[in-house]
Structure formats: C-alpha cells, structure tokens
C-alpha cells in the first residue's frame, strides 16, 4: 500500500550512492475521478524544480499512472503544450493510459515554492503556475492542507511536515494504495 516500506534493494542502492529518497504516497487516478491530492502534487513539483537535488528519478511501481501524472505536471512547469504532454504520457502508458490522468494534468493548477537561487533553468513561471517564496505562502495557496501530506524522508524516518518542507527534497517514489 501507500505506506509500504520502500524496497530494501532500492534503499541499499540509494545509500551506497549517497541518494536520498523522498516519498510522496498517492493513489492513482482511477474512475470515478479519484484524483491525486493537489497538495501532494504541489510538494512533489516543488521538489523537482530545486536544482540542489538533481538529477532526480521519478518512479512508482509500474511507471505509468502516478509517474505519468507527476511527469505531465512537471512538463507544465517546463512550458510544454498539453498536446505534447499527452503524447509523451500515452507513449509511455501505452494501452494502460487513463483519461482521468490526462484530465488531472490539464485541470491541475500548480502551486510551487521556489528558492530563487536554486530554481531549475527550465522552469517557466509564466505558464499559469502560482509561485510562492515562503512556507506560509505555500500553506495559504494550499488552503488549509498541509504541505507535503504524508510523505516522509528516508534519511530521518520522520513524518514530512511543513517544517521539513523547508529542508531537502530529493528523488521521488510514488506508490498507490495497492503498492503498484
């Protein structure tokens, strides 16, 4: 499930290569319109635009739905046209693609927190994205939802909280409720 332990072989590889793991547990978009929580997507994208943690590997167990949603939303931050985003999504999802994923990507309104000196050069803040600079602004933009939801940092095994959101963001592992 989404709270399942990260595979030991992956943890060992990450530890041996000085790679930190940041998990953003989320269910996949499944009918009827079970969507990825926006606050978790905001936090994942905030992590992805921070160059201190590049290169980044985005993955889930199957590499289609949650990975496709995060990648599609990331492409929006890069200023890609929706047709190009959907073409890439469908290329990798194959016949397993979900219309719900594409609707989420199209309708999602990104909110990302940036530290100006660490923003990736490909980030396009002029393509319908809400950019905030402080944890309080991010919290306010998310409504009353917590920044980062239930994600946790492997290195400390603590709950990811608004306070931790000001710290390191690193490679993302996304799992659904079935652990796939």
Task: For the structure shown, list the relevant keywords.
about 180 residues; alpha/beta; 3-stranded parallel sheet; 6 helices; about 35% helix; disordered C terminus
Structure, explained:
The chain is α/β, with parallel strands linked by helices and 180 residues long. It has six helices and seven strands. The termini are close together.
Whole-number mean pLDDT: 73
Number of strands: 7
Measure the end-to-end span: 8 Å
- Pairing-aware structural class of the strands and helices? alpha/beta
- Low-confidence spans: 144-180
Helix-strand pattern, N to C?
A: HEHEHHHEEHEEE
In one word, what is the shape?
A: globular
Strands ordered across the widest β-sheet? 1-7-2
* Oligomer status: single chain
Question: Cα-atom Rg, whole angstroms?
Answer: 15 Å
Largest β sheet strand count, sense and barrel closure? 3 strands, parallel
**Helix content range of the residues, please?**
25-40%
SS element count, helices? 6
Relative strand content: 5-15%
């Amino acid at each position: 499930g989404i709270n399942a332990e990260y595979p030991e072989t992956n943890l060992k590889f990450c530890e041996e290569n000085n790679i930190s793991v940041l998990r953003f547990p989320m269910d996949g978009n499944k009918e009827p319109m079970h969507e990825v929580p926006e606050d978790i997507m905001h936090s994942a994208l905030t992590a992805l635009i921070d160059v201190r943690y590049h290169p980044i590997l985005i993955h889930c167990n199957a590499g289609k739905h949650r990975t496709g949603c995060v990648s599609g939303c990331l492409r929006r931050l890069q200023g890609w046209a929706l047709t190009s985003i959907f073409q890439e999504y469908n290329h990798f999802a194959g016949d397993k693609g979900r219309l719900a994923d594409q609707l989420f990507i199209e309708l999602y309104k990104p909110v990302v927190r940036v530290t100006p000196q660490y923003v990736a050069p490909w980030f396009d803040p002029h393509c319908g994205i809400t950019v905030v600079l402080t944890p309080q602004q991010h919290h306010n933009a998310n409504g009353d939802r917590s920044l980062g939801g239930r994600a946790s940092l492997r290195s400390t095994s603590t709950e990811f909280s608004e306070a931790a959101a000001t710290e390191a963001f690193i490679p993302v592992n996304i799992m659904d409720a079935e652990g796939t």
